[in-house]
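JOB MANIFEST
job_type = single_chain_structure
chain_count = 1
residues = 226
[input]
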Amino acid sequence: MFRLIFTATAVLTGSSVVYFYIFHKKLSARIQHRSHCGKLAASAKPCEIESIPDAVFTDKYFTLYDWSSKSVPRYLMPGCTTTEELFTKLVRRNMTVFTHFPQALMIRVGCTTAEEIHSFKTSHISSLDFDKGDLVCGVYRVIARSKNKVEFEMTMKNMEFVNGRLALSFKEKGGDVIFSSETVMWRRADESRTMPLEKCVVRFMHETAAWWLIDSGTKYLMDLEV
């Protein structure tokens, strides 16, 4: 009996790994993406997140960076709503969906204050314009806001040696709107402890989540009825 249960569990686990590998591969083909691992030079800055301290772009820091993007013809989205309003809807939708992801559930376990716990509620996220200071999902606090970008500072308890940013943005080019998601984490180069995204499984989960959110988020905007 135990051998049967073990065998069934192994088969299900193996099937899940294969499924997510194929899903990850399909997502990779549907969006634009790039990543960076190592030290950053200011002259070769790969991202446009303005709130990253200048010191990070020196050899004193080790960084991990992930960027994903998808372009959508503007005419496929509601014409009676401005692009800036659509972008805010996208951020609300994606952060709300994220609250159901395994990553968010793990973050929620460590939340203790009323503000942190409240920041996971759909009613809270759906009311935000993501002004500076707003908190989402316990660890994402808006540190910079412009009409086409939201930059979140990531604060991770018990990992004070890690700093990070999550940025969601859009650009209009010709008749298209390009929606992007950027994540960057950094630590001092002489720090021996590893950041979450340095672990292969965590990085795979992050990529799958970020890529799917940008892909499904653009489809959400195209399906909007206003």
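[summary]
DSSP finds six helices and seven strands in the chain.
The beta strands are 32-38, 61-73, 135-136, 140-146, 149-154, 163-173, 176-188.
exit_status = 0
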